[in-house]
Amino acid sequence: TTTSAKSDMKEFLEVVSKAKHIAVITGAGVSAESGVPTFKGDGGQWKTWQYQDIATPEAFSRNPSRVWEFYHHRRHLVLTQKPNAAHLALAECEKRMRKQGRSMVIITQNIDDLHRQAGSKHVLNIHGSVMETRCVSCGDIAVNHQHPVCASLEGTGSPDPEIPEAQIPVDQLPRCEQSDCRGLLRPNVVFFGETLDSHLLTKVEKELDICDLCLVVGTSSIVYPAAMFGPQVASRGVPVAEFNMATTPKTEYFTYHFQGPCGSTVPLALA
Ligand code: BJW
Ligand code: ZN
What we know:
This protein has ten helices and eleven strands.
């Protein structure tokens, strides 16, 4: 693919040093070097299903046991991963900027907890968190680090298609602990076909409006609305830099493109 985006790191370092407010958009690629599989890569499958078939509201209402098994597996992965050099460089940069009266926000599509674990303070989790549950009856959202979330999920969730599904009865799946509710809990993540939290989207819009530099790190830029955030900033004439292993459908909108593993490129760019 040809692109007019520049890859001049020296020039980019200069731009970073002058920025007052950096907005960073991240995707699965930022966690790839921590061992969390990305969606469109080899990891984008569980048993015989593609993520698009199982991370949906229809899949959850038809077979909540299957969807809970899948997320039990995802939680297990997240709980065993550590932030990598890219997460750490972003957190370091935020800390340094804050001391200088400048700021950074991370707008992440990832449902893992790695930006927070790395020490980033200003993080917007636009696709939710795998460490939270939401009650389908009363809407209560709760942080839940228990593993497994409930006893019946113990030992389930293997991605191996040869291992049969657990088919857990719905009354033994995670249930709401609010008094008198006992509703079915679901992972507090944004499934395909669901809308993003409107309060959060308003916050995102504000950040995109005020930033004077934008980094787009490790996302395929094909899932909306996040895929339009970088181009939206670029349309104001603000520099946008993409960090990815490959070009994406949005590369042509951006000023800079740094190709390679972001665990190497991001620390160099924010040095
Ligand atoms: C590296 C690397 C390394 C690897 N270093 N880089 C407008 C147009 C067209 C479609 C739509 C539209 N608006 C809405 C839609 C539908 C849909 C959508 O976008 N579909 C597309 C597939 C076309 N969007 C939605 O459904 C959204 N809802 C919505 O807009 O509501 C309105 C509505 C309502 C009803 C009907 C229709 C619309 C919601 C999207 C929610 C996405 N949810 C998921 C699952 C979350 C829970 C979970 O994780 O289980 O979020 S899907 C999945 O994709 C996950 C991710 O956050 C998201 C983005 O993926 P990401 O992060 O980009 O990962 P990958 O794997 O795709 O890419 C990794 C990249 O990293 C690659 O580029 C690699 O090269 C790179 N990389 N290693 C640097 N070391
Ligand atoms: Zn409830």
